[in-house]
Each structure stands twice: as C-alpha cells, then as structure tokens.
Amino acid sequence: METGTRARREGDSWVIRRNGEMAGVLPGGSSEQHILFCMKLAGSGRPIIQESHPAETLAELRERTGYGFCSGPNYWFGMALERGEWDEYGDFARCLESGRSYLYGNSVSPEAMARKKTALTREFALAARFCFDHPDVELSLEIRSGRSGNIVRDYRIRRRGEYVEIELPHHDAGGERGWITRDCKYRHLVNVD
Fold first, then answer.
1. In terms of Cα–Cα distance, which of 167, 181, 23, 159 is closest to 90?
2. What's the rounded Cα separation, in Å, for the pair 119 and 188?
3. Could you give the CA distance from residue 149 to residue 193 in angstroms, rounded to a whole number?
C-alpha cells in the first residue's frame, strides 16, 4: 500500500493522494507552491476543497461572474510562507469560535454558531473558490452606485489557512462585516463593527 502524501498530474488536474486515497484535486494551472502547500494540508488530514469547474484565471473569473475583480498579493499567504504554516487563526474552527465569542458571547452555543450560515451567491462562491485555489492572491471588488458612481461596497476576498475570508471593510451603510467559508458554498458571519 502507498503511504505518505503525493501529487500526480492526471489529465488537466493535479490529484493529491494521502496513503493511496484521494485527498483532493487541484486545477492543472496550480503553482508548485500551492501544490506543495495542499500536500502539507492533506498530510495533516485537513480538507482540500474540490469543484469540477473552478475558474483558473482572473480573466475567466471576471468573464464567468460579470464582475471586475482586481487582484493583489495575499498578506496571510506571504506570512504563511515565511513561517512554513498559517497563523493560529488559519484554523476554521478557531476562527468560528472567535467570531461566536465576539458576536454573541455565551448566548449562542458553538453548535448553533456552526449552523448559522447563509448561502454564497454564485459569483462569490466562484471568487472564494478562486482564492482557495490561488492562496497567494487577494481579490478586491468595488461595487459602485449606478446613480452617483460612488463606491457602495468594497469587498476583500482571500484565503487564510483552511478557509476563505470575505471582508467588507466599508460600505454605504457604514461599519464593517466579515464572513468565512470553508466549502465555498456557505458563509459564516464572524465580524460586525
């Protein structure tokens, strides 16, 4: 029986196996850094998200969503490369617990917090998946008012360890919002200011 974690090119994808069992599939255009990082995740038993048709390029993401996403470097990925691992809040359960403590205190149980989630729109699900597959990239999306042209939403989307953060640092209603997603289908609210 095969032991350890291995990545092998199969068709248009990279297949990662842990002890002979499939642990995940990455797009064929994944960087060597990302493949090695996902192998490390798989080796530790952490999840690697899979989807049959994720957007592989920023241009494809823009075309499929109709949004003008911009990209830049992901601060958290740079820090992870320097340390060889994600920071302590790169753990999904820890971030969810931190959000529960901040938003609700003891009035909501950890189990109830895990169930408090909303579906991502198709566009944000694709963007979250893109960031999961490209951990070195942070996406930004400005949504402007049709009337004034002013920015009314300014999203930041990036991978942080086992999950993707979707942040809305400022918006026309004021304040700030932060969500996390591990499956790129549902989001959990973890910050409101």
1. 159
2. 9
3. 25
- Alpha carbon distance 17, 76 (integer Å): 26
* Whole-model pTM over 0.85: no
Contacts for 159 with CB less than 8 Å, ≥ 6 apart: 74, 76, 77, 131, 132, 134, 135, 165
Q: Which residue has the tokens 């494809």?
A: 60
Task: Tally the C-alpha atoms within 13 A of residue 191's C-alpha that lie toward its C-beta.
Answer: 14
Kindly state the tokens that stand for 67.
């949004």
DSSP-assigned states of every residue in 60-99: HHHHHH----EEEE-HHHHHHHHHTS--GGGSHHHHHHHH
Cα dihedral: 105, 106, 111, 114 (round 10):
-10
- Whole-number Å distance between alpha carbons of 175 and 61: 28
* CA gap 34, 83 in Å, rounded: 15
- Consecutive H or E run containing 128: helix 122-133
pLDDT tens by residue, 90-135: 889 999 999 999 999 889 998 998 888 999 888 899 999 999 989 8
